[in-house]
């Protein structure tokens, strides 16, 4: 089931590109640093290596954060907890989106899924 929003898909894409680009920079920076003559362009390769490592961490963080947001279904889990604590007795909850429904409702008011 695909619960991703456009923003989350975009964040995953950006995170993947940044992570891959960072890894490429790390590898090429390290290769340049290792193969460079002392005093030639060792500094710029070192910078590329460091910047690539930084970008890779950022990219990985973006992906991990976005995946966590998707797994909690855009905060639906927190919403269910709050509504279960405040809903009147006898009320039910949509098993699809977590919205509180009236005891007689057959379909969720929020997402239209069958209730009960
Ligand atoms: Zn629902």
Describe, in plain words, how this protein is organized in 3D.
The structure is a single chain. With about 120 residues, the protein is mainly alpha-helical. The chain has two domains: about 5-70; about 75-115, no CATH class. Helix content is about 60%, strand content about 5%. The protein contains three helices and two strands; from the N terminus they run αααββ. The protein has helices at about 5-35, 40-70, 75-85; strands spanning about 90-95, 100. It has a two-stranded antiparallel ribbon. Helix 1 packs antiparallel against helix 2. The longest helix is centred in the N-terminal third of the chain and has 30 residues, at about 5-35. It is rod-shaped and about 80 Å long. Zinc ion binds near residues 97 and 113.
Give the SSE layout.
Elements lengths: L5 H30 L6 H30 L4 H11 L5 E2 L6 E2 L15
Antiparallel strand pairs: 1-2
Helix pairs in contact: 1-2
The site of zinc ion has 8 residues, from loops.
Euclidean distance between termini CA atoms: 21 Å
Ligands bound to this protein structure: zinc ion
What structural class results from the helix and strand content?
mainly alpha
Helix segment tally: 3
Measured by DSSP, the beta-strand proportion falls in under 5%
Number of strands: 2
Average pLDDT score: 80
Order of helices and strands: HHHEE
Spans where pLDDT lies below 50 across 5 or more residues: none
Helix content: 55-70%
In spatial order, strands of the major sheet run: 1-2
Largest sheet: 2 strands, antiparallel
């Amino acid at each position: 089931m695909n619960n991703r929003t456009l923003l989350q898909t975009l964040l995953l894409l950006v995170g993947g590109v940044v992570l891959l680009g960072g890894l490429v920079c790390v590898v090429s920076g390290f290769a340049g640093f290792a193969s460079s003559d002392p005093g030639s362009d060792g500094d710029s390769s070192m910078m590329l290596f460091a910047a690539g490592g930084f970008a890779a961490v950022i990219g990985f963080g973006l992906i991990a954060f976005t995946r966590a947001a998707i797994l909690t279904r855009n905060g639906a889990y927190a919403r269910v907890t709050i509504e279960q604590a405040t809903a009147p007795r006898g009320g039910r909850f949509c098993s699809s989106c977590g919205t509180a429904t009236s005891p007689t409702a057959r379909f969720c008011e929020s997402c239209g899924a069958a209730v009960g």
